[in-house]
Amino acid sequence: MAVIIETPNSPRTRKQANWEKYGWLFMRVSGPLLIVLIFTHLVANLVVGDGIKAIDFAFVAGKWADPFWQVWDFAMLWLAMIHGTNGMRTIVNDYVAKESLRKGLVTTLWAVGGLLVVLGSLVIFTFDPCPAGAAAELLPSFCPAS
Amino acid sequence: MASIPAGTLYRGKVGMWSWVLHRITGVGIFFFLLVHVLDTALVRISPEAYNVVIESYKTPIIGISELGLVGAIIFHGLNGLRVIAVDFWSKGTKYQSLMFWAVIVITVGIVAGFAPLHLARVFGE
Ligand code: HEM
After folding, report:
1. pLDDT, tens only, A16-47
2. Would you call B22 an interface residue with chain A, using a CB distance cutoff of 8 Å?
3. A85: domain CATH number?
4. Count of domains for chain A
5. B14-124: which CATH architecture?
6. Can you give the residue ranges of every domain in chain B?
7. What's residue B68's pLDDT?
8. Residue B51 is nearest to which of A52, A120, A138, comparing CB atoms?
9. Residue B4: what pLDDT?
10. Chain A residues with CB-CB distance to B67 below 8 A
11. How distant, in Å, are the alpha carbons of A95, B51, B67, B68, B117 from that of B123?
12. Is the CB of A135 less than 8 angstroms away from the CB of B58?
């Protein structure tokens, strides 16, 4: 099934915005940012202190009490989801030859990606570290005793 | 050597295998991220719901798998920098093979350093 590209070196003639190029650039801009965001995330959660043993509701509440980590996780969520979804789109484009199936899968990818980004953002910014009625020993130490 | 067609710089070599690994790790990390956003969202349900699910991340089998996940992220990230270097750095193609091996060595090194620490926490009391 040879695909014939007649003059591969000729300049692009279509006049619309070149989204494929912006996607390509986005992968290369978000990548280095994700290194900083994710590697720091891994060190903060899995290396320092007691690492994975310390992770529970109170640990998360302690982090998100600080706007620094809220913004950090928000940036990481958006960049990683867009980068990952766009990468999956590339892979679908490579392997799925049937056009209707390809379109369906790409649409599903962006729908799922969009849903998770919205859900994750809401979780970060509507988070309540001291929910009413929760057992005090599960909450961070700064919650008022009830 | 006669079986390798002349002029093949890519197929069966470092360039191809780094791409295969980059693709597989990318897909793996993507599906983990979907699950990870959902498990973290449990903090909005209740402290108990979150704690119960996050405890499973501390069990031996998942604890060991986390080393694979961490390794996949480090490989994908560092190899991503290599891809960017090949695209934008004039000497990128000259050193692409060397950079691939550097990525492998650094990834294995970091995972080897992290493993004892992490496994002691997963298996210790
Ligand atoms: C840690 C920092 C990261 C860096 C530096 C990075 C770098 C890159 C680069 C440069 C590409 C484009 C490769 C190409 O066009 O040939 C890429 C592709 C991809 N990335 Fe990442 N990435 C990172 C994190 C992630 C994360 C967190 C995910 C998942 C959510 C992910 C999933 C993917 C996928 C699925 C592809 C497509 C692979 C392919 O087309 O073969 N990456 N990455």
Report:
1. 888 999 999 999 999 999 999 999 999 999 99
2. no
3. 1.20.1300.10
4. 1
5. Up-down Bundle (1.20)
6. 14-124
7. 98
8. A138
9. 61
10. none
11. 41, 18, 14, 17, 10
12. no
CB contact at 8 A, A97 and B18: no
Nearest to A131 among B46, B88, B122 (CB): B46
Touching check for B29 and chain A: CB below 8 Å?
yes
A60 lines ligand 1 (CB under 6 A): no
Residue with tokens 């191809």: B16
Q: Which residues on chain A are in Cβ contact (under 8 Å) with B36? A: none
Residue span of the structural domain in which A35 resides: 27-128
Is residue A7 included in any domain, yes or no? Answer: no
Which ipTM score applies to this complex? 0.91
The helix (H) or strand (E) run that includes residue B18 is helix B14-41
Residue A39: inside a domain, yes or no?
A: yes
pLDDT digits (tens, 9 = 90+) for A45-102: 999 999 999 999 999 999 999 999 999 999 999 999 999 999 999 999 999 999 999 9
Q: How high is the pLDDT of residue B43? A: 96
Across the range B23-31, mean pLDDT stands at: 98
Q: Whose CA is nearest to atom 27 of ligand 1?
A: A80
Q: What is the rounded distance in angstroms from the CA atom of residue B4 to the CA atom of residue B11? A: 9
Q: How many whole angstroms separate alpha carbon A94 and alpha carbon A143? A: 51
Specify if A58 maps to a domain: yes
